[in-house]
Amino acid sequence: xxxxxxxxxxxxxxxxxxRTPEAVGTITDARGRIxxxxxxxxxxxxxxxxxxxxxxxxRIASGGRRVNLxxxxxxxxxxxxxxxxxxxxxxxxxxxxxxxxx
Length: 102
Hints:
Strand content: under 5%
Radius of gyration: 21 Å
CATH topology: Chorismate Mutase Domain, subunit A
Protein name: Chorismate mutase
Number of domains: 1
GO molecular function: chorismate mutase activity
Distance between the termini: 52 Å
Enzyme class: isomerase
Structural class: mainly alpha
EC number: 5.4.99.5
Keywords: Isomerase
């Protein structure tokens, strides 16, 4: 009898670095939440890229430049204000992902 459903292997202490079964369970659950959050974040980044492409197309079509540096500075300041110095790096990555996709 064939079973097409795949079964994930049990998570062990070695997989998590945990030293107790309770910690393995907590870590496994938290990792699942992180995986879910990462999926949502990726979806939001892709949506942001698509919206940015619309803005760039309209700006170029109206005779403007593809990139608005003053707007980018606002975004960098916002991320830095919310997340500190690392927020600036995250904002730069988002801006880079969103440029030139027109």
